[in-house]
Amino acid sequence: MYQGIYHGSKKHEPDLEMVLNRSWAAGMDKMIITGGSLVDSKKAIELSGTDSRLFSTVGCHPTRCNDFVQDSDAYLNDLRQLIKENRDKVVAIGECGLDYERLHFCVKDVQLKYFELQLQLSKEFQLPLFLHCRAAADDLVDILSRNKEHVIGGVVHSFDGSQEALDKILNLDLYIGINGCSLRTKENLEVAAKIPQDRLMIETDCPWCEVKPTHPGYSHVITKFPSVKKEKYSVDSNNQVKGRNEPINIVQVLEILSAIRKENIDELADAIYKNTNKLFFSNKY
Q: Which helix (H) or strand (E) is 94 found in, with range?
């Protein structure tokens, strides 16, 4: 989408540089680009090499775990080699985990097997896990509990689970990542309000997971950015593309959380910033 391509159709010129510049100008300090497969992880690392403030994860998303099937040892070793060669840029193993809402991409047994296989990379490289969990909290918690010796911390990102799921994940000393997709329902807001401050992180998961006007927390959004449809978008403008999320929009997630938790926004931002540095960057600074 940052190349201007939507569903295979080019709508505007590439604008990733402008998107990043908007984010840096707004005060963003560092960004983590998510790797969702071996190919995507290589691209994420390549992009991270263009700026000292960009970092990457390396791993295989649950919906992509069929990539392991033909030769799982070779695929895991390729992930391992990618981490070895880019230790200065790789800050987490993932995105890995379980997704039972999209089993049409990859069946449950394959997801379970190759999620567990990737966990050894966490201990081997002393890197935290960047975890994906959709309608699969019990199995995720079970696998992580059985592999405690392999897990060097982590965050369940884009969390949208129940209070019960939250409690089970917190019992594993993991962090919880909140974005627009985490705040889509009234129940989501109630759960997000109860996450301990020292276990909370925020994210955008852009270009996905924007906070939408239809979301119950939107009334708490203070900082709004002009946007236009992709067909009318000009790279030189300061507009955003309607429906495409950007890193700068992370402030909106913060504003909603500050309101529903009744916490001072600057103090909350400081706590979240410290949590993020502690998990991902404590070995780098």
A: strand 90-99
Report CA dihedral (165, 243, 213, 223) to the nearest 10 degrees: 100
Backbone angles phi, psi at 24, to 5 degrees: -60, -40
Q: Coil, helix or strand for 43?
A: helix
- pLDDT at 284 > cutoff 70: no
Outline where 97-194 has alpha helix (H).
108-118, 120-125, 137-146, 163-170, 186-192
Strand blocks (E) in 4-53: 5-6, 9-10, 31-33
Model confidence pLDDT, tens digit, residues 227-282? 999 999 999 999 999 999 999 999 999 999 999 999 999 999 999 999 999 999 98
Instruction: Kindly tell me the sign of the dihedral angle through the C-alpha atoms of 161, 90, 274, 30.
Output: negative
Report the residue count for the chain: 285
Cβ neighbours around 111 below 10 Å, total: 28
Beta pairing partners, 97: 132
Give the per-residue pLDDT at 283: 67
Question: Residue 285's pLDDT is what?
Answer: 40
Query: Which among 224, 146, 132, 230 is positioned nearest to 177, based on CA atoms?
Result: 132
Other CB atoms closer than 10 Å to residue 202's CB: what's the count? 22
Output DSSP code: residue 34: P
DSSP state of 247: G
